[in-house]
Design goal:
Helix content is about 40%, strand content about 15%. With about 220 residues, it is an alpha/beta fold.
């Protein structure tokens, strides 16, 4: 969305595509789950009295596919091979999600983009990211946000908030930190899947992270 009120900012899209390209050039297999809040959030439709929760969530899933198609186009402009897999069947524009097919695409060096969340209402794209990461046996979830890690409080609201470089899943629960929704966090904890939270809007951060530099907060079992 960039600085716009809604929609897709071409400059941000191009920046993200270049960031992903740097990861690919470094030899990393990349799979992406993308949200749709810049277009439609299910909760907005519910609060506005437009639709019920399930209908709103399905509308949000379709929004993620629009974003996924935009990112796919930006990546392919950079000559990166991609595959878009959707949890909701849309054969004219993307492949249906099949776990083995997703893994095979990654093995062939393609960037895999997962659209339409989990395909079910009442689940967030955070949960979709955790689920897909577990399914494809990913090494880590890289959660790109607007802030450079996890803080004791919202740093955009509380100037005294301090940042964690490393935190355990248990501490996230105990402190009630808003990292991901609890379903997503639980899924990662139960499958021993670490989460790295970092600022995706800071140019070069993804490359630094891949090279082992400390640019965010790592959530893991051990402190």
């Amino acid at each position: 969305m960039g600085n716009q009120q809604y929609g897709i900012d071409p400059k941000i899209l191009e920046q993200y595509a270049h960031e992903v390209k740097e990861a690919i050039d470094a030899g990393v297999q990349v799979a992406i789950v993308i949200g749709g809040g810049n277009i439609f959030r299910g909760v907005q439709g519910v609060q506005g009295g437009i639709v019920d929760r399930a209908q709103g969530d399905y509308m949000g899933m379709l929004a993620t596919v629009i974003n996924a198609m935009a990112l796919q186009g930006a990546l392919e402009t950079l000559k990166i091979k991609t595959r878009l897999l959707s949890a909701i069947k849309m054969e004219q524009i993307c492949e249906p999600f099949i776990r083995r097919r997703a893994i095979r695409h990654l093995e062939k060096g393609r960037v895999v983009i997962f659209g339409a969340g989990t395909g079910n209402p009442y689940f967030t794209t955070d949960t979709a990211a955790s689920l897909r990461a577990v399914e494809i046996e990913a090494d880590v979830i890289l959660k790109g946000t607007r802030v450079d890690g996890i803080y004791t409080a919202d740093p955009e609201k509380d100037k005294t908030a301090t940042k964690f470089d490393l935190i355990t899943f248990s501490e996230v629960y105990e402190r009630g930190l808003n990292v991901m929704d609890l379903t997503a966090i639980t899924l990662c904890q139960e499958n021993n899947l670490p989460i790295m939270v970092f600022d995706m809007n800071q140019k070069g951060n993804l490359k630094k992270l891949i090279q082992g530099e400390s640019v965010g907060t790592l959530v893991t079992h051990q402190s």
